[in-house]
């Protein structure tokens, strides 16, 4: 990306560069069979009137593939009521670090960045707390710390001790997976 193109990107501004990047993202999601696309914000993306207007415009203009949810991770001081309002209005799933705040949408999406930083290994007590936070409701749990695969597998075993497989979650009779756990290797 050239310096001029970089100047057109970020902050949910809908520009030709962003439109092309979004179409590439959607294409990748379709190839991968993804069920969600994450819109992660830096803490510098504050809940100002102009930021909210740009987020709304982005969500209204961005093509959404069928069956793919948009997951929004606002970081920083976004008021719960505004997050709830925007998620409902724009059909977004709220992503949050469960050790900092709870997800505010009916389907929860939790991203664990590491309590003490990216190298953090979650303790059994922390994973038990996480299981209590997630509860029985529909949820995604994404470990984003460096030891993510091992932490995700430990959490899966803790949350689903009856399951001998690496399946995707708590299930009731005829219901979809309630908790999907991911800790993709690599990166």
Automatic annotation (TrEMBL):
<dbReference type="Pfam" id="PF01904">
    <property type="entry name" value="DUF72"/>
</dbReference>
<dbReference type="InterPro" id="IPR036520">
    <property type="entry name" value="UPF0759_sf"/>
</dbReference>
<feature type="region of interest" description="Disordered">
    <location>
        <begin position="160"/>
        <end position="187"/>
    </location>
</feature>
<dbReference type="InterPro" id="IPR002763">
    <property type="entry name" value="DUF72"/>
</dbReference>
<protein>
    <recommendedName>
        <fullName>DUF72 domain-containing protein</fullName>
    </recommendedName>
</protein>
